[in-house]
């Protein structure tokens, strides 16, 4: 059973939503970042988890799991008994749960006064101050647009970047979606509504230039389906696959796809197909002539997958 979503107001009625969507909506209403997996809840101290999630507010678009992964790799969330965690410095002069050099920490807080709640004066050994400073530092270094660059700036080693990204994926795997139109999960109300609309069109024919029955067409083409889906969620997209790709914003390399992302195929100058990702490696799309709107794997042997975008309502139309 799909959700009957007629208006944004319906989202507020969380208890009546079905198929796990209610929980997703609650999460979406209180923050658009990904949600902690069971592995994260079991491993991260509650006070640190709260700080990781709150600190992303100073770097819009940065997922809490990146901060948490750095905290894990650096000091196991402050639990490491090694020198330079709760006091002193390690062999490189770093200290505190996020392992800042004193000069780097001082530079960050000089540019960005830290929110209240930490030490007076701010201290790299205070978890609140260290985690907020790490969020500012990552943002200054290119996050969230270029996560690899930002994490590399934190510790100049490719193995470190790979380890942080792998740990972040373990921490945020809770809301990667089901791939099932009967059990929709997504991180934002708009994504839920777009997926619900697209799933409601399953079986309609592929029609070149088709915008669906509401526009007098028997069915959809690929970009007609995605634009109609997000229009149902109150977000206006450009009409063609190419212009939807151009509008972005693109999901940075290294970040996992989330339900509601648009997935594109072709080359940057010749995008020929788009689908709506619904999790678990699946998308809803209008494939081609003779094939109706359907759920398919978004990757297959020989595909020319290009990239994904995450519509926000700020796209250039």
TrEMBL record:
Keywords for this protein: Hydrolase, Protease, Thiol protease
Record has Protease as a keyword: yes
Superkingdom: Bacteria
Domain (NlpC/P60) ranges: 188-317
InterPro entries assigned: Lysozyme-like_dom_sf, NLP_P60_dom, Papain-like_cys_pep_sf, PG_Endopeptidase_C40, Transglycosylase_SLT_dom_1
Keyword rRNA-binding included in the entry's annotation: no
CDD domains attached to this UniProt entry: Slt35-like
Family assignment from sequence similarity: Belongs to the peptidase C40 family.
Annotated PANTHER family: NLP_P60 DOMAIN-CONTAINING PROTEIN-RELATED, PEPTIDOGLYCAN DL-ENDOPEPTIDASE CWLO
UniProt-recorded name of the protein: Bifunctional lytic transglycosylase/C40 family peptidase
Taxonomic lineage from the root: Bacteria, Bacillati, Actinomycetota, Actinomycetes, Pseudonocardiales
């Amino acid at each position: 059973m799909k959700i009957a979503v007629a208006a944004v107001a319906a989202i507020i009625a969380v208890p009546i939503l079905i198929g796990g969507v209610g929980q997703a909506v609650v999460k979406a209403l209180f923050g658009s970042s990904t949600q902690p997996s069971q592995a994260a809840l079991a491993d991260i101290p509650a006070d640190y988890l709260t700080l990781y999630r709150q600190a992303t507010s100073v770097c819009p678009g940065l997922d809490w799991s990146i901060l948490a992964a750095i905290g894990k790799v650096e000091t196991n969330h402050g639990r490491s008994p090694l020198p330079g965690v709760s006091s002193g410095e390690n062999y490189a002069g770093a200290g505190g749960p996020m392992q800042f050099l004193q000069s780097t920490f001082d530079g960050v807080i000089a540019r960005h006064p830290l929110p209240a709640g930490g030490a007076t004066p701010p201290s790299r050994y205070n978890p609140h101050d260290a985690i907020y400073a790490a969020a500012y530092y990552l943002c200054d270094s290119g996050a969230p647009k270029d996560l690899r660059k930002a994490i590399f700036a934190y510790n100049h080693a490719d193995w470190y970047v790979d380890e942080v990204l792998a740990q972040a994926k373990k921490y945020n795997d809770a809301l990667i979606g089901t791939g099932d139109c009967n059990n929709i999960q997504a991180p934002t109300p708009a994504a839920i509504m777009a997926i619900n609309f697209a799933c409601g069109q399953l079986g309609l024919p592929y029609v070149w230039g088709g915008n669906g029955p509401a526009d007098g067409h028997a069915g959809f083409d690929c970009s007609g389906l995605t634009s109609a889906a997000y229009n149902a969620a109150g977000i206006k997209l450009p009409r063609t696959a190419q212009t939807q790709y151009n509008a972005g914003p693109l999901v940075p390399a290294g970040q996992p796809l989330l339900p509601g992302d648009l997935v594109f195929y072709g080359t940057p100058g010749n995008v020929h197909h788009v689908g709506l990702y619904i999790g678990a490696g699946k998308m809803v799309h209008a494939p081609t002539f003779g094939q109706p709107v359907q759920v398919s794997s978004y990757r297959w042997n020989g595909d020319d997958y290009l990239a994904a975008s995450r519509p926000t309502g700020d796209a250039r139309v």
